[in-house]
Design goal:
257 residues, 13 helices, mainly alpha
Length: 257
């Protein structure tokens, strides 16, 4: 709360920034389907569909304010920088699954989005909601938007982080089965979500943590689950990303929102 006391307008300043961050994450992770990802590997032309999806996400998350010409210009700027950043990334084939390169890539994306804080667009305020419209209430709610940001960071982003850590730091990567991939995503989603509850937090965390070995024992043969599923490395990485994301969400909730 001290930050809010020193910077009383921080919630307003961060309003459009948070929605653009969420738009980027949605377009860069859940909506980057295998077909879109495979197209990207063909070069600049193949990156255009991905950049277009990113742009549409920016537009949808900025929909109430598209009457502002400056916002259209900023969305175009973000789309072009994303397009060229991805094309540069593809030129370094040897860094494809580099953890450091992956983190730097996301930092650069976030840095470009944060440039909106240097413009007058940072003054965009929440919508008036005199009739308590559910859609507007959802859009105006910074906690909901922040939760979705950390949810994607923990789930889809977490999956790629784990893969890159194994590939470039641990030097040991075993492809996950479809079940193992989605179990990890749902596991981390649960860990992030329970930090919104706060009450009985450790009970819920304990339940999620013991669920993985139970699932392995019960469904190992039926679902063809590999030993990697309960390896120390896999479980520690998945749990750490989920819990750290949840803690960050909790800190942001109590500090800024």
């Amino acid at each position: 709360m001290l930050i809010v006391e020193y910077f009383p307008n921080i919630n307003k300043i961060m309003f459009i920034f948070l929605r653009l961050v969420l738009a980027h994450l949605i377009g860069d992770f859940p909506l980057q389907f295998n077909k879109v990802y495979n197209l990207k590997q063909k070069g600049l032309i193949g990156i255009i569909p991905h950049a277009t999806i990113i742009m549409l996400c920016y537009i949808i998350l900025s929909l109430p304010y598209l009457n502002l010409p400056g916002l259209w210009g900023f969305i175009f700027f973000l789309t072009i920088t994303h397009l060229f950043q991805d094309s540069i990334k593809l030129s370094y084939k040897g860094m494809k699954f580099s953890f450091l390169f992956y983190i730097l890539d996301q930092i650069f994306h976030l840095s470009f989005i944060s440039m909106i804080l240097l413009t007058n667009l940072r003054q965009i305020a929440p919508l008036d909601n005199p009739k308590d419209n559910l859609i507007i209430s959802f859009y105006n709610n910074n906690l909901t938007i922040t939760y979705l940001i950390f949810l994607i960071l923990a789930t889809y982003n977490g999956y790629f982080m784990i893969r890159n850590i194994k590939t470039t730091i641990i030097k040991k990567f075993t492809p996950s089965t479809t079940f193992e991939k989605w179990y990890g995503i749902l596991e981390r989603a649960g860990l992030v979500s329970i930090f919104l509850l706060e009450k009985y937090l450790f009970i819920y965390i304990s339940f999620i943590l013991i669920l993985r070995p139970i699932v392995f024992i019960i469904s190992r043969k039926k679902l063809s689950i590999t030993e990697e599923f309960i390896s120390g490395l896999e479980t520690i990485l998945s749990w750490s990303i989920g819990i750290v994301s949840g803690l960050c969400l909790c800190i942001v909730k109590h500090t800024f929102i």
